[in-house]
């Protein structure tokens, strides 16, 4: 009797069909040919056929896929106890004390959640409670989470999500296309709120403006914007879900690059290397004012297993000097991309900090015309050649380069060599 086997390709197609049948059409997958990884290690993912992929996109596995220290911390605590945060347990206190040492002294309290969306939602609730305002200022292509309240603050989710009438949009600090627009739009947003009788509650943005296109404001711009909002009665919420935990290289937190101390700081997925833990760091006076009037708890936000995972991540970042690695390898990456731009007209601009880099593709450098179709082709051709990246920005034309923090120079060299060949191929199509 002949044994019938299913090829890995057919197995992936069958899995995709099953997924679509039971999960529906609301979920999205990366790449025109969806990836089916079965194992991860460091900066590598492996599919069912044994092909390895260089992960130059996944910030969630911040210290690398399946880091042994994180896996061990999860396993040990799982075998001992996992319960909720309404009991005493040393893991949450030990972690909170250690994490807060990485923040300015004014930011002295931590509340833990399961997701970054929950952290941003809590930040929004606190800001509105303590200021008495409702108005929120966000960038034009922001993403801050998936709750109803945050979807209204996340224009990048698409036109199908109605923006709240208390939300004012500002330009990201895009010094490639429109220098100076950031501060002018903050002033305009505050003026609109005054005219409409809306009291500001918060200025909220991701401190590397990743969804907008990966931007770095000019010196002093963020501090000035924050001061204007505070003068109007609002708070500054720094969304560190993507730029936090040493990713920018220059500092542990993205906000530190802008010489400003936020009122509240939201943290997310990279905190636990993908384990479901997130949190909100802030000034104790704000937490106290909120807590006096509002009963808040998050049953499994900060459970012992998640806290041990997050504490292991924090130790790995320090012990393996991953912030310093992000600074150096990020410098090599940007230099390499700038060298490629000398030979590829598609590469219009290179920007970012540490291991968070944006490379803008344009079809016409003089007019800076977004090369959206070419970006799709580059991302998918890179995937075919075993290198994983994505694209971002309103036109989807900015390559989003954001590898795990254990990404080294040899990995950067492989990425750059592959991108060089792919840009040549795409330009010739």
TrEMBL record:
- The organism's superkingdom is given as Bacteria
Signal peptide positions (record): none
Q: Which UniProt keywords apply?
A: Aminotransferase, Pyridoxal phosphate, Transferase
Task: Show the SUPFAM superfamilies listed in the entry.
Answer: PLP-dependent transferases
Q: Which CDD domains has this protein been placed in?
A: OAT_like
Against InterPro entries, the record matches this protein to:
Aminotrans_3, Aminotrans_3_PPA_site, PyrdxlP-dep_Trfase, PyrdxlP-dep_Trfase_major, PyrdxlP-dep_Trfase_small
Q: Which Gene Ontology molecular-function terms are recorded?
A: transaminase activity
Swiss-Prot/TrEMBL cofactor(s)? pyridoxal 5'-phosphate
Q: Cite the PROSITE patterns for this sequence.
A: AA_TRANSFER_CLASS_3
Q: Which family does it belong to?
A: Belongs to the class-III pyridoxal-phosphate-dependent aminotransferase family.
Q: Which PANTHER family match?
A: ALANINE--GLYOXYLATE AMINOTRANSFERASE 2-LIKE, PTHR45688
- State the protein's name: Aminotransferase class III-fold pyridoxal phosphate-dependent enzyme
């Amino acid at each position: 009797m002949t044994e019938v086997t299913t090829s890995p390709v057919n197995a992936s197609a069958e899995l995709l069909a099953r997924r679509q049948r039971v999960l529906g059409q609301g979920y999205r997958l990366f790449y025109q040919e969806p990836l089916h990884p079965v194992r991860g290690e460091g900066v590598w993912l492996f599919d069912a056929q044994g092909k390895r992929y260089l992960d130059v996109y996944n910030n969630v596995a911040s210290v690398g896929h399946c880091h042994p220290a994180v896996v061990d911390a999860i396993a040990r605590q799982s075998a001992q106890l996992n319960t909720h945060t309404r009991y005493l347990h040393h893991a949450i206190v030990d972690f909170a004390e250690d994490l807060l040492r990485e923040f300015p002294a004014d930011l002295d309290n931590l509340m833990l959640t399961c997701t970054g969306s929950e952290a941003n939602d809590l930040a929004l609730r606190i800001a509105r409670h303590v200021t008495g305002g409702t108005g929120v200022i966000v960038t034009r292509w922001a993403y801050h989470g998936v709750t109803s309240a945050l979807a209204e603050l996340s224009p990048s989710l698409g036109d199908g999500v109605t923006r709240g009438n208390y939300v004012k949009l500002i330009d990201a600090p895009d010094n490639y296309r429109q220098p100076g627009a950031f501060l002018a739009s903050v002033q305009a947003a505050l003026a609109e709120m005054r005219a409409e009788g809306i009291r500001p509650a918060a200025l909220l943005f991701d401190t590397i403006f990743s969804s907008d296109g990966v931007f770095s404001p000019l010196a002093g711009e963020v501090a000035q914007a924050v001061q204007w909002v505070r003068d109007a009665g609002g708070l500054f919420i720094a969304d560190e879900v993507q730029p936090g935990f040493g990713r920018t290289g220059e500092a542990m937190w993205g906000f530190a690059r802008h010489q400003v101390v936020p009122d509240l700081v939201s943290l997310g997925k990279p905190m636990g290397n993908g384990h479901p833990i997130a949190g909100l760091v802030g000034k104790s006076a704000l937490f106290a004012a909120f807590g006096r009037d509002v009963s808040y708890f998050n049953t499994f936000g900060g459970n012992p297993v998640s806290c041990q995972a997050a504490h292991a991540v924090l130790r790995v970042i320090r012990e393996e000097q991953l912030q310093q690695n992000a600074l150096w390898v990020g410098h090599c990456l940007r230099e390499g991309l700038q060298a490629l731009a000398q030979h590829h007209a598609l590469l219009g601009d290179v920007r970012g900090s540490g291991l968070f880099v944006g490379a803008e593709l344009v079809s016409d450098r003089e007019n800076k015309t977004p090369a959206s179709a070419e970006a799709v082709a580059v991302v998918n051709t890179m995937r075919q050649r075993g290198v994983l990246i994505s694209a971002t920005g309103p036109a989807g034309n900015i390559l989003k380069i954001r590898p795990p923090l254990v990404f080294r120079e040899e990995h950067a060299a492989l990425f750059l060599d592959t991108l060089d060949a792919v840009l040549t191929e795409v330009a010739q199509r």
